[in-house]
Write a structure and sequence with these properties.
heterotrimer; A mainly alpha (608); B alpha/beta (202); C mainly alpha (301); A: 608 residues; mainly alpha; globular; disordered N terminus; C: 301 residues; binds iron/sulfur cluster
């Protein structure tokens, strides 16, 4: 497959180019656009590379979808981060893109693993070396440590299982391994399956491997966080589909699917309550990403066509929403220099565009009609009901209801309430660099809300590739399931119509009873006279009451991160002795560890 | 609408033009629904609970409590007003939406009552706020309070309960009087600046 | 199309007058429990018209202005996605284009829109009210979803009209066929109607009437009007789902009044829960009954 290699080589080629000038971003844009078009034509072509193993690449329709998501995210991201990146950043970013493309089009273990590692390492370098946390003290060492450790674990798990599979099937081809996994019933296929699954969960940040996500998202360069959330978190899903989807459809694996569904539901619950607790914008969005990804896994576990469609819809939606929200947040941080809710507030009339952007984002994120977020959720809920997994449904209704709180916190903390540390007189709308991609994203979210059926065509192609039934498509504006249908077009129109009528009515009253625009501090405050110093903004505390709810409190109080860090520190103490063997440079030693681990895994795999 | 009593009907018959009928009807609705903000300033606060509860049941006249000044139609000041309290009262009154009324209970708001020589209370409320109805007594019993509400209703129906207009038109006078007692602790500008401009409405 | 629009207007009028009537009864009933005379039956209408007759209204910019509009639009939109009658072309709204899951989410749109206006008004009490409301919603939605999910998977459809159609005789009413689901949903019902013990959101003394703290005049008028309509939408939804629906307006009123009476009694009898107590309560007893019902259902299959 031409494009994968082309991208890879061009990616490396760009290393030189990007170092020379940032201007070449324009070229990159063109290239990415090209790539969006080209893979369609040369799907399923093969290319061989000389070497010990034969590397095969083929971009399946699923790979294409993910590649498209990544490419579009990358394109928008590059636009948004125009001119603010230091040297080396682009090189790494493109290296990562290359890795991602290799991964997505990999046909055999080696290229799969290679792509995985290139992607992981370059993204690590990206967020570590170009961190957005300006203050070096503020930047926590833990984040890097967690990311590296967990990535290593995931790589090890994967390597081990892949070699095991190679050993069993005698073929490097992924398809053979998958066939073997599904062919064998019982324990021997479960254990490698579960191990592999953990590796993928880790990448998507599912419980109990979510701990790397918040820190990483928080510290990554702002626009790169958008990309992380929109594209990289989807890799786990891709790998899951690649290896397991037929597996979860398999009759004998009901319990495992059920387990995965519950893992999704519990992850979503934990992540949502944690998100409510966050006091900074990126942290909140990071936890919300974990939660949203978890719905996708729950849906995939259900396994019906509707659920799969819902999962894909939800995934595409999530990419759009998170790009939008992270871009706007990046813009706000750039303008104000503030990241926390207790530092912001009251910016609505100064930043109307960002306000509308975040509003569209949170409506979709909360999964409310009439925007696109609802329809993905609708498909997932309906599929759960049709499947009869009512308890799982309850399990995901809890977090998606609690999600309203963090959605409200996000918009309130930034735009509503009272200004705190940012002088509203000086605040300006976010720069056009962010506005243009955000505008596009908003338009597509609204469009998908109006015509949710638009997404069904590509979804149907994917479903038939998977050998599943396709979904009924009566009109672009509506979605259908066996047990009912919903028309996004009608919902949007009815809501809009009613809204317009009431607005007109209100304006009629307005003639008789005009609204007096009051001073910001002129509020009903029990007869008291608030001053500029009165702490009226509720940005930090908002949602803290949730802690008093027993279940939420139990979740919020516990921190897996701390537990892991404890284990890590104790291990570190032991490893201190071993450390003498390695050269001083941390990265070198890590790479050495990896090579060593790979060797061990190879041995185990060959022996087994 | 069985509570259109005889007096109302007689009034209605006298009206000639349709606009007058509309005005009359609007006033009728206003008088039938009075959201009360009971500001327990002095001893009289204790008379409000019996007024609204089982014994005297103000709700049967459409009088009902409101939680915030934004929702209230009438502010009931029950007794003497310390300077400190007056500031809050003015603040609250200014936050209410027109048409709005003031009922003052007891002799203290009228002439200082038994606090006539206190260093710390105001003696004459209507120097600072436009009082629509005063109920004399020390302290007026709930019957008297209800009587006060009836008087207010009458005034509303006649279209004469326009204390709010008076306040707006003579804002300078009122503000000067307020300034006399508050001195440099006067209410900040944002609370009342819009009285002096047209307030920027839409 | 004209017919639908006419029907929509009719639905708005019907719910408004029904709601005003019921809430008039509510106030009189409460007064009688206190051994008072109470206001006239139409006091709520008078209050509402008075609010619209106010000469001015407080404002905090355009978002504050739009809040009550979104709230009312949300209410009316949800109303239009509920079929009022069964076996009738009348008062169906747009319900054939939607379903129960859509409706549940539509019902949240309005309050969240209004929450934006509350936020922009800058009253911290209002925001506290909003957070309380959202927190309480966690407790209400979970058992409610469980009970309607039982219904939906029981009747094999997610469309409200079809669920309503399936209940052709008294023994087929869902409150008979799925008693556990009905009982669970009643807890959420009382909560969603905002009666005590779940009325902590707008506590007048604590948080200054919560979300409504800064609204006055016409805005409060709109909010009051939509509140009664919204309550009626919920009543009608419960009639549709559990009480076998109604073939004409009078049966609809009789059935919904029965439910309203239940709500009135509960509201009059119980004191108020704190927010977290409400959620904890909802996640205990109702949820356990619900889970029990699910388990029974799927084991007996
Ligand atoms: S009038 Fe009498 S009862 Fe009322 S405040 Fe004055 S002293 Fe107290």
């Amino acid at each position: 497959m031409v494009s994968a290699l082309a991208v890879f080589f061009l990616g490396t080629h760009k290393i030189i180019r990007e170092l020379l000038s940032i201007v070449s971003l324009a070229l990159l844009t063109g290239l990415l656009l090209m790539r969006i078009v080209s893979p369609v034509s040369d799907d399923f072509t093969w290319q061989y590379m000389p070497g010990f193993f034969t590397l095969s690449f083929s971009l399946s329709s699923f790979g294409l979808l993910f590649a498209l998501i990544a490419a579009i995210s990358g394109l928008l991201k590059s636009f948004a981060s125009w001119g603010i990146n230091s040297k080396g950043y682009h090189a790494l970013f493109h290296l990562m893109m290359g890795g991602l493309m290799i991964l997505l089009s990999a046909g055999d273990y080696i290229s799969f693993f290679l792509g995985w590692e290139i992607m992981t390492w370059s993204s690590f370098m990206l967020f570590n070396n170009f961190s957005s946390a300006d203050d070096p003290i503020e930047k926590s060492q833990d984040t890097g440590f967690l990311f590296i450790t967990l990535s290593l674990i995931s790589a090890l798990l994967m390597l081990g299982v892949l070699f095991f599979l190679y050993n069993r099937t005698g073929s490097m081809n992924i398809a053979d391994g998958v066939a073997w996994l599904h062919g064998v019933k019982g324990l021997p296929s479960w254990i490698p399956g579960l191990l592999l699954m953990s590796a993928f969960f880790l990448k998507s940040g599912l419980l109990p491997f979510h701990v790397w996500v918040p820190g990483t998202y928080r510290e990554a360069p702002h626009t790169f966080t958008a990309f992380l959330s929109a594209a990289l978190s989807k890799v786990g899903i891709y790998a899951f589909i690649l290896f397991f989807l037929p597996f979860s459809l398999n009759e004998g694996s009901g319990q495992i699917s059920y387990l995965i569904a519950w893992i999704g539901a519990i992850t979503a619950t934990v992540a949502t309550f944690k998100a409510i607790e966050q006091n900074d914008m990126k942290g909140l969005l990071a936890y919300s990403s974990i939660g949203q990804m978890a719905y996708v896994f729950t849906a995939m576990a259900v396994g019906s066509s509707l659920a799969m469609g819902g999962a894909l819809f939800q995934m595409v939606n999530h990419s759009l929403i998170k790009l939008l929200l992270f871009f706007i947040v990046a813009g706000i941080i750039e303008r104000t220099g503030k990241t926390r809710f207790d530092q912001l507030g009251g910016l609505i009339y100064k930043m109307p565009f960002s306000f509308i952007g975040v509003l569209v984002g949170i409506i979709a994120l909360a999964g409310m009609p009439p925007l696109s977020g609802f329809y993905g959720k609708w498909m997932i809920y309906t599929s759960l009901i049709e499947k009869g997994w009512l308890l799982v449904l309850t399990g995901i209704v809890l977090p998606s209801t609690a999600a309203f709180i963090y959605c409200y916190k996000l918009i309130y903390g930034i735009f509503l309430g009272h200004p705190t540390e940012v002088n509203p007189e000086e605040a300006k709308e976010i720069s056009p660099r962010y506005r243009v991609p955000s505008g596009l994203l908003m338009a597509s979210i609204v469009l998908l809300g109006l015509f949710p059926g638009l997404i069904l065509k590509p979804v149907n192609v994917l479903l038939s590739d998977l050998g599943m039934e396709t979904l009924a498509l009566t009109s672009q504006g509506s979605l259908n399931a066996a047990s009912g249908s919903v028309s996004g077009f009608m919902v949007m129109n009815v809501f809009g119509g009613v809204f317009a009528v009431i607005l007109i009515l209100l304006s009629l009253f307005g003639k008789k009873a005009p609204t007096r625009n009051l001073h910001r501090l002129d509020i009903a405050y029990a007869g008291e006279l608030p001053t500029e110093q009165t702490p009226l903004h509720y940005g930090r505390g908002l949602g803290h009451e949730v802690k008093r709810v027993a279940i939420a409190g139990a979740i919020v109080k516990r921190s897996l991160t701390e537990k892991y860090m404890k284990i890590g520190n104790q291990l570190g103490g032991i490893l201190e002795h071993v450390r003498g063997f390695y050269p001083g440079n941390g990265q070198v030693s890590l790479i050495m560890t990896m090579v060593g681990a790979a060797a061990v895994a190879l041995l185990i795999g060959l022996k087994g | 609408m069985d509570n259109l009593n005889k007096k109302d009907k007689a009034q209605l018959k006298e009206l000639k033009s349709p606009m007058a009928v509309v005005d009359w009807a609007v006033n009728w609705f206003r008088k039938q629904s009075i959201f009360m903000l009971a500001y327990g300033t002095g001893c009289g606060a204790i008379e409000i609970p019996p007024t609204v509860t089982a014994r005297y049941d103000a709700e049967r006249f459409g009088v009902r409590g409101a939680a915030t000044p934004r929702q209230a139609d009438v502010i009931v000041l029950s007794g003497y007003l310390a300077v400190k309290t007056l500031k809050r009262v003015i603040r609250t009154y200014e936050q209410m939406q027109e048409p709005k009324y003031v009922i003052a209970l007891g002799s203290c708001p009228i002439n200082g009552g038994m606090y006539w020589d206190s260093y710390n209370t105001i003696k004459q409320l209507d120097r600072y706020l436009p009082v629509d109805v005063t109920v004399a007594g020390c302290m007026p019993r709930p019957e008297a309070v209800l009587e006060g509400f009836m008087a207010l209703k009458d005034k509303i129906q006649r279209g004469e309960a326009e204390g709010a207009r008076d306040y707006r038109d003579n804002i300078e006078k009122y503000k000067n009087n307020q300034k006399e007692i508050f001195g440099d602790k006067m209410l900040p500008g944002y609370t009342c600046d819009w009285y002096f401009s047209d307030g920027g409405s839409f | 199309m004209l017919f639908t629009i006419f029907n929509s207007l009719l639905a708005v009028l019907l719910t408004y007058s029904m709601g005003m009537l019921y809430y008039g009864f509510y106030r009189i009933g409460n007064a009688r429990i206190h051994r008072r005379v109470g206001p006239p039956l139409w006091q709520n209408v008078i209050d509402n018209i008075k609010l619209f007759a106010k000469r001015e209204a407080p404002g905090h910019g355009i978002m504050f202005h739009l809040g009550p509009v979104i709230m009312t639009a949300g209410t009316i939109t949800s109303m239009l996605f509920v079929p009022f009658l069964k076996d009738s072309a009348w008062l169906q709204g747009f319900s054939s284009y939607g379903n129960l899951i859509l409706l549940i989410y539509l019902m949240v749109v309005g309050p969240l829109g209004n929450a934006l206006a509350v936020g922009v008004s800058g009253v911290p009490f209002g925001v506290m009210g909003v957070t309380r409301g959202l927190t309480r919603l966690i407790g209400l939605e979970v058992p409610f979803f469980l009970s309607v999910a039982l219904l939906m998977s029981g009747s094999g459809t997610i469309s409200i009209s079809e669920i309503m159609m399936a209940q052709d005789s008294f023994s087929n009413w869902n409150m008979m066929a799925h008693p556990a689901a009905f009982i669970v949903s009643l807890f959420s019902f009382v909560g969603m109607m905002g009666a005590s013990p779940f009325d902590v959101v707008g506590a007048p003394v604590e948080v200054y009437s919560g979300p409504q703290a800064e609204f006055g005049g016409k805005y409060l008028g709109f909010l009051a009007a939509q509140r009664v309509m919204f309550s009626m939408v919920k009543l009608i939804l419960w009639v549709d789902l559990f009480l076998g629906g109604a073939t004409n307006v009078f049966i609809l009123m009789a059935k919904s009044f029965a439910l309203f009476f239940f709500y009135f009694i509960v509201g009059a009898a119980f004191p108020r829960f704190k927010t977290e107590q409400a959620v904890d309560f909802m996640l205990k007893l109702p949820l356990i009954i619900g889970i029990g019902a699910v388990l029974v259902r799927f084991w007996s299959l």
